[in-house]
Write a structure and sequence with these properties.
The complex is a heterotrimer. Chain A is mostly helical. Helix content of chain A is about 75%, strand content about 0%. Chain A has two domains: about 35 residues, no CATH class; about 220 residues, MetI-like (MetI-like fold). Chain A is globular and about 75 Å long. Chain B folds into two domains: about 230 residues, P-loop containing nucleotide triphosphate hydrolases (Rossmann fold, 3-Layer(aba) Sandwich), CATH 3.40.50; about 110 residues, Nucleic acid-binding proteins (OB fold (Dihydrolipoamide Acetyltransferase, E2P), Beta Barrel). In chain B, a hairpin with a 2-residue loop joins β4 and β5. In chain C, β1 and β2 form a beta hairpin. Chain C has a two-stranded antiparallel sheet. Classes of the chains: A mainly alpha, B alpha+beta, C mainly alpha. Chains A and C meet through α1, α4, α5, α6 and α9 of A and α1, α3, α4, α5 and α7 of C.
C-alpha cells in the first residue's frame, strides 16, 4: 500500500511536465503531419470548408503528378550528385586539415587556426557576391562545378574534427611510425577509423546543409536540367498559385525532404555516441 | 641485433633542458636499463633513440650507422609503450600484422609470422579479439604489444615502463618472462623504468639518471655496492641507504679518520679525492649492514617499526647525537618494540664516504 | 612530436588551404573592393569611390530593409532562445521519451527552408489554411498572416521560431549537461529551492552557452532569405523586404553588384557591432568556476 502511494506521488510530480511537453511535441510535429495529410487530398477536399483534417480517400495521385509538372527526378538526382560529392570531398579535405592542425607542429599552424576561427564568425553573405563573381569568371555558371566546389571547405567541420582528433592518443600515431607506416598510411589506417563519431556528425551536418541549401543554387544555376531538388520545388510552386494545387505541392515537398528525414532518423545512434564522448561543448 | 650509442645527446624543450649532454654505450644483445625518477629525462632518451624526438645536439648511433637524422621507420627499432598503444579498432591479428603490412610484406608471409609470434607469446587464442576485449589486468594486452614489437625482428627493442600498468603479482612474473624473452631473442633491450627493483632484477647494466644527467652506469651489483654519489646511493636499495653528516678528523694516505656514529673509524678514500682535515663529509651505510647486537658500540631507541612480514624496518634514534640526522633505518628479523633500547654494530668497511658539497663519492 | 618529414603537415593542409585562399580569402578582399565600384558582372568593375555608400545613405528602402531585418532577427531569435532554453531545462531531467522529444523538435532544423515555407504557406492561407481554422475553433478572429502588410513579418517570425527552436534546445542541452552536478548538489545542501538554483547556479554557469547561442542566432536570424523569396517576395508592400532580399534584388535583378556589395559591407559592420555588443554585455559579470575557464 505504501509503495503504491509513493509511486503515485512520483508520477503526479512529473505529470504536468509530461503533459506540457507532449503538447509541445504535438504542436511541433503538427505541420509535418499536416503536410503529409494534405498531400493525399484531392483538389475538391482542399477547397472544402470547413477544412478537411483527414482525407476520406488517401489520394496517391498527387505524387506522380509532381513529376508531370516539373523534372523532379532530375532534381533529386542532381541534389544527390551534388550533395554526396560535396560531402565526400569536404569530409576528406576537412579531416586531413584537422589532422594536420591537431597532431603536427609546423610554422603557420596558429595562423591557419585563426583563419578558421575568423571564417566561422564572418557571415556567409559577405562573400556571396564576390564568390558568385569568381564562379562566373571561372565559367562555372550552370555547371556542377559551381555547385560542388564552393561546398568543399567547411571551417566548422575542420574545427569539430580537430577537437576530436586531439583526444586520440599520440602514442598510437608514434607506434605506427615505428611500425614503419608512412604518414599517409598512418592517417588512413590508424587515425581516420578512430574518428568515426566525429565524422558522423560532420557528414550529417554537411549533408543537411548542402541538400537544403537554396540561395546558392538559385544564383548559379539557371538551366532547369541542373536544378537541385530545392529549386525544383520552388519551380513547382511557381506553376500554379491556387489552393487546389496544394496537394501536389505538399507531395513534392514531402518527397523533397524524405531523404534528409530518412538519413536523420537512421543516423540518430551515431550522433548520440559522439556527444556522449564529451566531444562537444556548446 | 645491434649496439646503441648516444654521443653528447641533449634535448631542450622550450626553456627546459630535459636531457643534458648524455653519453651512453649500450652493448649489442644486452638488457640495458635506464633508471630514474619521473622527470629525469629517461623517457626522452628513449624517444630520441626511437627517433620520435630529434636531439637538440649530439648523435645517435645504432649498429654502426649514424641515425640521428633517420626517421623512426628506417631505424629498425621497435618500442613498447607504457599504455601499449594497441590500435583499438583492429583485432590482435591486425595489430600484429600492421608493422609487416606497412613494409609491404605479402599476405602469406604476414600470416605465417603472426602465428609464429602468437605462439611464442601464447596469445594464439586472442588473435580475433580487439584490444578492448582483452581481459586480465593488462597482461594479455602487454603480450600483444610485445608481439607487435617482436614481429618485425628489429635491431633494438625499446621499452617505456611496460610493466607499470600491471598489478604487483603479474609484474613480478613478467619481469622474468621479459628477461627470458630477451635471452631467447638475443636482442638488445633498452628498458626505461623508475622502479629500481625492476632494474636490479632484470638488467645487465643500469644507467641511473637524475634531472637529465646520467649519474652512473654499471652492473646492478656495482650500482648497489659502489654508488658514485648520494643520489644514486639513496635511490637504490629498499630501504634506502642511511646518510649521515660527519667530519673528517684527519686524512692520511688514502685513509680518513672520521667521527661517526659514536666511534672514530678509519675509512678508505679514493686516490684522487681532495678531502681535507676538518672537512664535512656524508657517510653512508646501508640498513642491512647495521647489526643488532647486545654489545654493539651504538646505542639507540626504537622509534618506529615497519613490519614487512619477513623482516622489519626499524627506525632507531641514536642516543649520542651531536649530528643532524640521527635516525637510522635498520633491518631486523626479531621482534623489537617501540621504545626499546637496542645496540647496533657495524663494520667500517661498509662505510661509504661522499663529499658533502658535491655529493660525489670520495 | 617529431619523427616525420617537415613538409608532411603542409601536404595534409594543402587542399583546405587552397580552398580558403581562393574561395574565402580572395572573395573577402574582393568584397571590400567591389563595394567601391559599379559592377554588373558583364563588364569590368568601374571604380566609383564612395558613391555607393552615399547612395545607400539616401536610400529609404535600404533603411527600411535594415529596420525590419533587425526587428525580425531580434524578436524571433530572442523568443526562439527563450523557448529553446525552457525546453532544454524541461528535458534535462531524466525523463522517459526524452530522445523522442528531441528528435521531433529537431525535425524542422534538418528540413529544407523551401519545404518549410511551402508547408507554412498553405497553413497560412486565410481561407483554407489550418491556422485560421484553429483560430476560429478557439474563438479568435482569423488572420491574414503573410498576406497582410502588418502581419507578414510576424508570420515569418512564427515560422522561423518553429524551425529553429529545436536547434537552440539542442545547444542549450549541451551547455546544461556540461555543468557538473556537484554544483547542484552543493546548492541543494545549502538549502536552495528550484528557483534559486536556477538563477544562482544554472544561469550563471550557462552564460558561455547563452552567449554562443545568441551570437549564432543573431548572425543566422539577420540573414533570413528563403522564406521571403518563397512566400512573400519581400511583400506585401515591402513589409518583409529583408536585407538579404534587398541585396539579392540589387545584385542579381538590377545587376548593381557594386551597390549591393556596399550594402553587404554595411550589413557586415552592423552584425559586427551587434555581436560585439552582445560579447561586451555578457562578458561583464561572467563567472569563473573553479578549475575551468568560462
Amino acid at each position: 500500500m505504501v509503495s503504491a502511494l509513493k509511486v503515485k506521488k512520483r508520477y503526479l510530480h512529473v505529470l504536468p511536465l509530461y503533459l506540457a511537453l507532449s503538447v509541445v511535441a504535438i504542436a511541433f510535429f503538427f505541420p509535418f503531419f499536416w503536410m503529409l495529410m494534405s498531400s493525399f487530398k484531392s483538389p475538391a477536399e482542399l477547397l472544402r470548408l470547413p477544412i478537411v483534417w483527414i482525407p476520406s480517400h488517401f489520394l496517391l495521385s498527387n505524387y506522380p503528378a509532381v513529376f508531370k509538372y516539373v523534372p523532379f527526378t532530375r532534381g533529386l538526382l542532381n541534389s544527390a550528385l551534388v550533395t554526396l560529392t560535396s560531402v565526400f570531398g569536404a569530409t576528406l579535405i576537412s579531416s586531413m586539415a584537422a589532422y594536420a592542425l591537431a597532431k603536427y607542429r609546423f610554422a603557420g599552424r596558429g595562423a591557419f587556426l585563426n583563419v578558421i576561427l575568423i571564417s566561422l564568425s564572418v557571415p556567409g553573405f559577405v562573400t556571396l557576391i564576390p564568390l558568385y563573381d569568381l564562379v562566373y569568371r571561372f565559367g562555372w555558371i550552370n555547371s556542377y562545378l559551381a555547385l560542388i566546389i564552393p561546398y568543399l571547405g567547411s571551417a566548422y567541420s575542420i574545427f569539430l574534427l580537430r577537437q576530436y582528433i586531439i583526444t586520440i592518443p599520440d602514442s598510437l600515431i608514434e607506434a605506427a611510425r615505428l611500425d614503419g607506416a608512412n604518414e599517409f598510411r598512418i592517417f588512413w589506417r590508424v587515425v581516420f577509423p578512430l574518428m568515426r563519431p566525429a565524422l558522423a556528425v560532420v557528414i550529417f551536418w554537411n549533408f543537411f546543409n548542402i541538400w537544403n541549401d537554396f540561395l546558392w543554387p538559385l544564383l548559379v544555376i539557371n538551366d532547369p536540367k541542373l536544378y537541385t531538388v530545392q529549386l525544383v520545388l520552388s519551380q513547382l510552386q511557381g506553376y500554379e498559385s491556387g489552393v487546389s494545387f496544394v496537394g501536389i505541392l505538399m507531395a513534392g515537398s514531402f518527397m523533397a525532404i524524405l531523404p534528409t528525414l530518412t538519413i536523420y532518423l537512421l543516423g540518430q545512434s551515431q550522433m548520440k555516441r559522439f556527444y556522449n564522448l564529451g566531444g562537444v561543448k556548446g | 641485433m645491434a649496439k646503441v650509442e648516444l654521443r653528447g645527446v641533449s634535448k631542450v624543450f622550450g626553456s627546459v633542458e630535459a636531457v643534458k649532454s648524455v653519453d651512453l654505450a649500450i652493448e649489442d644483445g644486452s638488457f640495458f636499463v635506464i633508471l630514474g625518477p619521473s622527470g629525469s629525462g629517461k623517457t626522452t632518451i628513449l624517444r630520441i633513440i626511437a627517433g620520435l624526438e630529434s636531439p637538440t645536439s649530439g648523435k645517435v648511433i645504432i649498429g654502426d650507422k649514424d641515425v640521428t637524422d633517420v626517421p623512426p621507420k628506417d631505424r629498425d627499432v621497435a618500442m613498447v609503450f607504457q599504455n601499449y598503444a594497441l590500435y583499438p579498432h583492429m583485432t590482435v591479428f591486425q595489430n600484429l600484422a600492421f608493422p609487416l603490412e606497412s613494409r609491404g610484406i605479402k599476405k602469406g608471409e604476414v600470416r605465417r609470422r603472426v602465428e609464429e609470434v602468437a605462439s611464442l607469446l601464447r596469445i594464439e587464442h586472442l588473435l580475433n579479439k580487439k584490444p578492448s576485449q582483452l581481459s586480465g589486468g593488462g597482461g594479455k594486452a602487454q603480450r600483444v604489444a610485445l608481439g607487435r614489437a617482436i614481429i618485425r625482428r628489429p635491431k633494438v627493442f625499446l621499452m617505456d615502463e611496460p610493466l607499470s600498468n600491471l598489478d604487483a603479482k603479474l609484474r613480478v612474473y613478467m619481469r622474468s618472462e621479459l628477461r627470458k624473452l630477451q635471452r631467447t631473442l638475443r636482442a638488445t633491450f633498452v628498458y626505461v623504468t623508475h622502479d629500481q627493483v625492476e632494474a636490479m632484477s632484470m638488467a645487465d647494466k643500469v644507467a641511473v639518471m637524475f634531472k637529465g644527467e646520467i649519474h652512473q652506469v654499471g652492473s646492478p651489483a656495482q650500482i648497489y655496492s659502489d654508488p658514485q654519489d648520494t643520489e644514486v646511493a639513496s635511490f637504490i636499495g629498499t630501504p634506502p641507504m642511511n646518510l649521515i653528516r660527519s667530519k673528517v678528523i684527519r686524512v692520511d694516505k688514502g685513509e680518513a679518520d672520521i667521527q661517526v656514529l659514536g666511534r672514530q673509524v678509519k675509512v678508505k678514500v679514493r686516490q684522487n679525492s681532495h678531502v681535507r682535515d676538518g672537512e664535512e663529509v656524508i657517510v653512508g651505510i646501508r640498513p642491512e649492514d647495521l647489526q643488532i647486537s647486545k654489545d654493539g658500540a651504538l646505542s639507540g631507541v626504537v622509534e618506529g617499526i615497519e613490519p614487512l612480514g619477513r623482516e622489519n624496518i626499524l627506525h632507531v634514534r641514536l642516543n649520542e647525537s651531536t649530528l643532524n640526522e640521527s635516525t637510522l633505518q635498520v633491518i631486523s628479523t626479531s621482534t623489537e618494540s617501540i621504545g626499546e633500547e637496542i645496540r647496533l654494530n657495524f663494520s667500517c668497511e661498509k662505510l661509504i664516504l661522499f663529499d658533502s658539497k658535491t655529493n660525489k663519492r670520495i | 612530436m617529431r619523427g616525420y618529414p617537415r613538409h608532411i603537415p603542409y601536404l595534409f593542409l594543402l587542399p583546405a588551404l587552397l580552398y580558403f585562399v581562393v574561395f574565402w580569402g580572395y572573395p573577402l578582399f574582393s568584397a571590400v573592393y567591389l563595394s567601391f565600384t559599379s559592377y554588373n558582372f558583364l563588364k569590368s568593375p568601374r571604380w566609383v569611390g564612395v558613391k555607393n555608400y552615399v547612395a545607400l545613405f539616401r536610400d529609404g528602402l535600404f533603411y527600411h530593409s535594415l529596420i525590419i531585418t533587425v526587428e525580425f532577427a531580434v524578436i524571433s531569435q530572442l523568443i526562439t532562445m527563450a523557448i529553446g532554453l525552457s525546453l532544454a531545462l524541461a528535458v534535462n531531467s531524466k525523463l522517459r521519451g526524452r530522445e523522442l522529444f528531441r528528435v521531433i523538435l529537431f525535425l524542422p532544423v534538418i528540413t529544407s527552408s523551401v519545404a518549410i515555407s511551402l508547408m507554412w504557406g498553405y497553413m497560412f492561407d486565410p481561407i483554407y489554411g489550418v491556422l485560421n481554422s484553429v483560430m476560429k475553433a478557439l474563438g479568435l478572429p482569423p488572420q491574414q498572416w503573410v498576406h497582410s502588410p502588418s502581419e507578414a513579418l510576424a508570420s515569418l517570425m512564427i515560422m522561423t521560431i518553429w524551425q529553429w527552436a529545436g536547434y537552440h534546445m539542442f545547444l542549450f542541452l549541451s551547455g546544461l549537461q556540461a555543468i557538473p552536478e556537484e554544483y547542484y548538489h552543493a546548492a541543494l545542501i545549502d538549502g536552495a529551492n528550484a528557483f534559486r538554483r536556477f538563477f544562482r547556479v544554472t544561469l550563471p554557469l550557462l552564460k558561455p552557452t547563452i552567449l554562443f547561442v545568441l551570437v549564432l542566432a543573431t548572425i543566422g536570424g539577420l540573414q533570413v532569405f528563403t522564406p521571403v523569396y518563397v512566400l512573400t517576395s519581400g511583400g506585401p508592400v515591402l513589409s518583409t523586404y529583408v536585407l538579404m532580399y534587398y541585396i539579392y534584388q540589387e545584385a542579381f535583378h538590377y545587376l548593381q553588384a557594386g551597390y549591393a556589395d556596399a550594402a553587404s559591407m554595411i550589413f557586415a559592420l552592423i552584425i559586427l557591432a551587434v555581436v560585439g555588443l552582445e560579447l561586451w554585455l555578457l562578458r561583464k559579470g561572467g563567472l569563473t568556476y573553479y578549475g575551468q575557464r568560462t
